[in-house]
Amino acid sequence: MAGKDRTGIAVALLHAAIGVHPDDILADYLLTNTAGDVEARIASGAATVRAITGPLDEAVLRVLMGVEAAYLESAWAAIDERYGSRDTYLERELGLDAAGRERLRAALSED
Predict the structure, then answer these.
(1) pLDDT tens, 61-106?
(2) Where on the phi/psi map is residue 109: left (φ > 0), alpha (ψ -120 to 50), or beta?
């Protein structure tokens, strides 16, 4: 609804592809809960959610508009279960082989 889930997983995959440490990937993912104007994002999302579902408790909206470590961990587990590794997923589904990941790393990292 807010794009946070698709975007969060896409960015996490990009980070994984270029070799960012898993702890740093998770920390970045969790920034959804604190970065920017969180209250404005929740208010904006609340209008959309309530238009679809009707009245919802504020606590429920906060859960819908936030992220938890378990969400990313579940995505990793699903990828690993189906493909064996994130690298295999990146190669099979996105055409990003080891050479492509290295080019990406060189383009995006500071080292």
Answers:
(1) 888 888 999 999 999 999 999 999 999 999 999 999 999 999 999 9
(2) beta
Q: Residue 20: which residues within 8 A CB-CB, separation 6 or more?
A: 28
The full length of the chain comes to 111
Angle at 36 (CA atoms; ends 48, 54), nearest 5 degrees: 15
Residue appearing with tokens 């898993």: 22
Give the C-alpha separation, 16 to 88, whole Å.
Answer: 12
Is-contact 87 101, C-beta < 8 A?
A: yes
Query: pTM for the whole thing?
Result: 0.82
Mutual angle of helices 98-108 and 4-17, in 10-degree steps:
100
Say if CB 1 and CB 49 are below 8 A apart. yes
Tokens found for residue 107: 């383009």
Q: Which of 7, 9, 1, 3 is nearest to 71 (CA)?
A: 9
